[in-house]
Amino acid sequence: xxxxxxxxxxxxxxxxxxxxxxxDRIDSKIAWVREEQEQQAxxxxxxxxxxxxxIVELGIGRGSPPIEVHRGDCHAAGKKRKPITRxxxxxxxxxxxxxxxxxxxxxxxxxxx
Length: 113
Hints:
- There is one protein chain.
- Helix content is about 50%, strand content about 15%.
- The protein has about 110 residues and is an alpha+beta fold.
- The chain folds into two domains: about 10-50; about 55-110, no CATH class.
- Strands 3-1-2-4 form a four-stranded mixed β-sheet.
- A hairpin with a 7-residue loop joins strand 1 (about 55-60) and strand 2 (about 65-70).
- The model has no long low-confidence stretch (mean pLDDT about 90).
């Protein structure tokens, strides 16, 4: 047996109760921290999945100029793309960058000629 514990039952039960109380507190804190981490991970996944409002499709090659403006959820956009703001989308269309014929960002942005 361990010699550093008290020899009487009352003190041993008190120590056990005290340690059980601390284990409950620690377990509760562990559960809370896990839930917080899970919520943060879910929020991060949702932010990643959320499509931008507008994207510009880029041409082939490094540093190539934008070739087409799309809504962020457009299925016709190529793989090489960059998220842009509403103002940037309007500016790109005004500068002559082609509007996607599938998602028609020019109609949604009221930039029709």
